[in-house]
Amino acid sequence: MDTILVTGALGQIGSELTPALRDRYDDVRIVASDIESGPDVSQPYETVDVTDRSQVEAVVEKYDVDTVFHLAALLSAAGEQNPDKAFEVNIQGLYNVLEVGREYGLNRIVVPSSIAVYGPATRNNPSERAIRSPTTMYGISKVLAENLATYYYQTYDLDVRGIRLPGIVSHKTRPDGGTTDYAVDAFYEAIDTGEYTYFVRKDTRLPMVYMADAIDAIITLSEADKSDLRFQCEYNISGLSFTASELSERIEERIGRFNARYEPDGRQSIADSWPSTLDDSAARSDWGWSPEYDLDRLVDEMVRNLQRKVK
Ligand SMILES: NC(=O)c1ccc[n+]([C@@H]2O[C@H](COP(=O)([O-])OP(=O)(O)OC[C@H]3O[C@@H](n4cnc5c(N)ncnc54)[C@H](O)[C@@H]3O)[C@@H](O)[C@H]2O)c1
């Protein structure tokens, strides 16, 4: 591995994965890219719209890229507001990356999937082979992405791999456009104003993971021996699972008074369609997935970091 391209590098995950890759691999060039220009991102950085195959091709050729971490996407809530664009970015964008991967003989493409592949027909704690019948455009695009990845693996021997990520809790880049954003927004608002109105019910329980564990999972999976992997982009990982009110209680324990209100909007039905826990035993046995953050540690880290940033 000589050169890694990260697409969607300015987003919630990319803004932490890119420096983590740079820290981990001294002798590998990490090229960050996004559709936006990136003033604060360390070099090299390129503006790349993944829906335009010629732009993907140009950056791969310019830097002699051999590995791609493909993060460019529209998330669940944003995708429901703009299904057309979600289809274009999540499907055409991935197709472009896979096609360039095939054409240029890339060594590896890492593509996150999501718990959004599951739908109301799936029971709790699903394993990788559970029914995938999502009801959102985002979930549909992720099922198609998983199937496309498997097709390219089987047909062209392209090494595509990924994880079905749950909601990610982090303090560096504030998420936007996702259904699990409340699990980050609550911290910002609690610390800034002492109050927050959740857009889900207080009993909404979803699987989540702290960013440090998510980054570790993405990198560990990317380094795993291909012969150990039973799945391509379908590995479940689950760090923890908590309700909105459990989160509020833990935040209040740390910061004192926290006035949490719950006014569900359209995102509630998306949350209700997802499982609240995941069976991640395959990731644990195949490539050693083992999260370090429980809810108390996650809340401690978020409060400590955001008290410095927000106040
Ligand atoms: N954050 C989560 O909780 C979560 C959960 C499950 C799965 N995922 C998956 O992880 C990946 C990264 O998610 P994220 O949370 O960092 O998302 P994000 O929305 O924070 O970042 C996505 C980035 O993609 C960029 N982008 C959008 N359209 C583009 C285009 N046409 N060309 C190039 N870049 C474009 C955006 O500018 C943004 O910086 C996605 O595939 C997402 O589905 C994220």
Automatic annotation (TrEMBL):
GO MF term (any one): L-threonine 3-dehydrogenase activity
Signal peptide: none
Pfam families: Epimerase
Family: Belongs to the NAD(P)-dependent epimerase/dehydratase family.
Residues annotated as domain NAD-dependent epimerase/dehydratase: 4-228
Family matches, as InterPro entries: Epimerase_deHydtase, NAD(P)-bd_dom_sf, NAD(P)_epim/dehydratase
Gene Ontology BP, a term: L-threonine catabolic process
Protein name: Nucleoside-diphosphate-sugar epimerase
